[in-house]
Write a structure and sequence with these properties.
mainly beta; 3 helices; five-stranded mixed sheet; 13% helix; 2 domains; elongated
Length: 283
């Protein structure tokens, strides 16, 4: 062993290499830079309701000109809900919007977005939660007639939006309901007959004419009793004004107006009795 040690020293000493330095030299290492994913994908929100717009975006690292990207949306039961092929920009970025509306958007739960570009191995996915039904909102709106100053309580239930205002249009004999429709939905209105009604010439209940943003529609259902007329009207996302046209609106001569008219008539009679004023020609 001593002979071997002397032999090693004899070999390295002429080159000026210290055995101590050789033994203590650090081991060389290679630093690896993390590789960016081949494709990324995300949604603009983590949860959506029926009628919402889902914005899907991401980026591809290696762009192949003329190669489209495939986007798939699957529901909680892995059923394919929507699919589309979109083009990639020159920098690899992509964006696609989907409307969460239609017969396939019916299951609540966790949904999956899958994207595929080029070879089947270049894929990515993300997820979001979806609610297909919206809880109805019930409330009472106080409608004031600007002519008679009477106030009427209109009970309503709405899904897919909210009621902004209700006004009376005496010229068109109509009640106008302004809504903010965030999705497809419906509104049920319980309208007092003293506010608005629809009658035939023989005095029987008649159907209301219903316009949504100027286009005529049909009600889903209608019922009536001695005091109220009830309508259920469907609407679409983006609809704003629902006009319900009847044959009679708030009486033109309400209690205050009738009192004023009666006082005016009595005053005229009193004046005519004193002055001998006649309203009909004497023969």
């Amino acid at each position: 062993m001593r002979l071997v040690a002397l032999l090693v020293i004899a070999i390295f000493m002429p080159f000026g290499i210290s055995l101590h330095a050789f033994a203590q030299s650090p081991t060389s290492t290679t630093t690896l830079t993390p590789t960016a994913p081949a494709i990324t994908v995300s949604t603009d929100k983590s949860s959506y309701l029926i009628g919402d717009t889902i914005v899907i975006s991401g980026q591809v690292q290696a762009v192949v000109p003329g190669t489209p990207l495939t986007v798939q949306i699957l529901d909680s039961n892995t059923n394919l809900i929507q699919v589309a092929q979109i083009d990639i920009s020159s920098d690899g970025k992509f964006t696609k919007s989907f409307l969460a509306s239609g017969p396939l958007w019916k299951s609540n739960g966790s949904y999956t977005v899958k994207v595929q570009y080029g070879p089947s191995s270049v894929t990515a996915q993300t997820g979001f939660t979806f609610q297909s039904s919206i809880s109805p909102v019930s409330n009472v709106f106080q409608v004031k007639d600007p002519n008679s100053q009477q106030t009427f309580s209109v009970n309503y239930t709405i899904t897919g939006g909210n009621v902004k205002d209700m006004t009376i249009d005496s010229q068109s004999i109509s009640l106008i309901v302004s809504i903010n429709s965030t999705s497809d939905g419906s509104i049920t209105l319980q309208m007092p007959r003293t506010l608005i009604d629809a009658k035939t010439n023989s005095g029987q209940d008649d159907s209301f004419i219903i316009l949504i943003d100027g286009a005529e529609v049909k009600s889903q259902s209608e019922s009536a009793n001695t005091d109220y007329r009830t309508l259920t009207i469907p609407f679409l996302q983006g609809d704003q004004d629902i006009e319900i046209i009847g044959t009679q609106i708030v009486p033109e001569f309400g209690p205050i107006a009738a009192l004023v008219l009666a006082i005016a008539i009595i005053s005229i009679i009193a004046v005519s009795a004193k002055t001998g004023l006649r309203f009909m020609p004497k023969y």
